Amino acid sequence: MTQETTQAATRTAASTTAARTRWLQDNGVYVAVAVLLLFNALFTANFLTLGNFTTQLVQAAPVLIVALGMALVIGTEGVDLSVGAVMALAAAVIPLYLGAGPLVAIMMALVVGVLAGAFNGFLVARVGIQPIVATLALLVGGRGLALVIADGQLVQLHDETFLELGTGDVAGIPISVLIAGLLALVVAGLTNRTTFGRQLVAIGGNRKAATLAGLPVNRVLIGVYAITGVLAAIAGVLATSRLAASDPADMGLLMELSAITAVVVGGTPLTGGKVRVLGTVFGVVLMQLVRATLIKHNLPDSIAQMIQAAIIIAAVYVARERR
Amino acid sequence: MTVSETSRRHRAVLPKAARTKVLQRQGAAVALVLMVAVSWLVFPRFGSLDNLRDLALQGSFLVVIAIGMTFVIITGGIDLSVGSLYALGGVLAAWGSQYGFLAALALPLAVCGLIGLINGLLIARTNMAPFIVTLASLLFARGLLLAITDEGANTYQIPADSAFVELGRGTVFGFGYPIFVAAVLAVLGGMVLNRTNFGQNVFATGGAEQSAVLLGVPVAKTKVLVYTMSGTLAGLAGALTAAYLQSGVTVIGVGLELDAIAVVVIGGTLLTGGMGTILGTVIGVGLIKVIQNVINQIGTLDSNYQSVVSGVFLLIVVVLQRILRR
Q1: Greatest extent of chain B over all pairs of C-alpha atoms, in Å
Q2: Across the A/B interface, how many CB contacts are shorter than 8 Å?
Q3: Domains (ranges, CATH) in chain A?
Q4: pTM score over 0.90
């Protein structure tokens, strides 16, 4: 009897542990953000100010926009390494068309983003190349192309309307943050409330089954990569406007890694079949908060990078699929 | 005679498949021969001994890294940390050189090998994706590098009279030592891959992991070993570079992991794992370096075209591989 009790106890303990692990998997990123906010509220001077929050959000906005697209791609069991290069291409295109007005310049940058993304999607869906390699080609070639377009130069921009995008605000909220928030809502709606979103997740979960079920796999994949491309281009436009210069050499450098990190930390598995938009938003916020906390406490960049590495490992360890 | 008969019969039975296989396996080699031949004819300076020596030296560091990457990719994994480990290895070698030759060589190998070992343990034992684990160690190694160089402000110099400098700058018939190191490692790597149990395990792990586990292939051990190897080789490449540059430059190696992956893929190793050759990887490095060299020779051409051409080239290769495999 004692043995039975022990066994039952063990079983309950095991199931509690499993439940706790699952809870942590689902909510770890929110807990981490809350803990960091609390820590900063208590121990960081001038943290709970409107100015500081605004700065943090403005810095995080381009990463968030890119990460939203990355979450979709990762949901299809893919990855897009070219997002930084697409940002650079968008930045390089803007000064070419700014003479025709900011709207035209922005539209052209977005068109470039869509084309680049659709090209990636075509390679992945129709040609059947692995996402890593397909988008690696654009990562390698895209920034070079951007530099060729810009003749390797940084170009200062002076168009008032265009610069307003990076510096202006509506009711105290910076325009770029507003756009990022809006896009997060759109992407959340897209994944949770549309057929496209369902199909995307189905393809990521089991591409063969999705094909056999008659889903338009190729069309959805090309669509997803095109969306990621256009989101990267939007991020490139906003970052360029904030910088008041087109800088294809540095624009979006290593952005693919920041975006992938945020998505994964936010609980979207690299194995596909699941997209967590709110998790991604919090993943971006978490990484931004970590960086801000370390900087505000005068920790050097070296330590900051090592701590970020540890956080990535910890997040993925918690969220990993059990064998 | 029997041999030639058999081979003829094979060709008759599977003419297209055989041709495809040859093209797939030797495509990069054919492209390299063509590129070299054309460059030799068009650019008088290309064929000069000086240029060829320079080309081989430039390629040797990447070869050392790409050998490790080939093993990792054949197991179906990926190692994003090699660019950072390369830079870290260089800095450690430069710092270690004040304690003599052995320290300068052993320190980067040990530290980078240890980080590779940790990569391997995390990937093999905890079922985490190689992509994300090595992405984290990319950040970690960069951070460690910054920590030991006073946030990148301090570039350690290697004393000019140090024996370690000789390792990077010494030559035989004008060909630098790193070329021979890379060549020896490539031959060794090819032999390990094709003629040892470990090599067979590498292929088995990448070909069909589940079946490999069931067949008793030590999959976890194999994974740990390939990532340790990859880290160690990246550290060695960094050490050689430091010896060549006579200092531990802190800003190098950013994005180098992508170059390494690109040359491995161009060399015919499949990213899905289970198939690949060291020779292909060496040829892949040759191709990229010849392209860069030629673009440099066309002085009027913007150096930014280098990456455009490399990107387009990578694309052509993977598209061709894909079409041929159908």
Answers
A1: 69
A2: 141
A3: 45-319 (1.10.3470)
A4: no
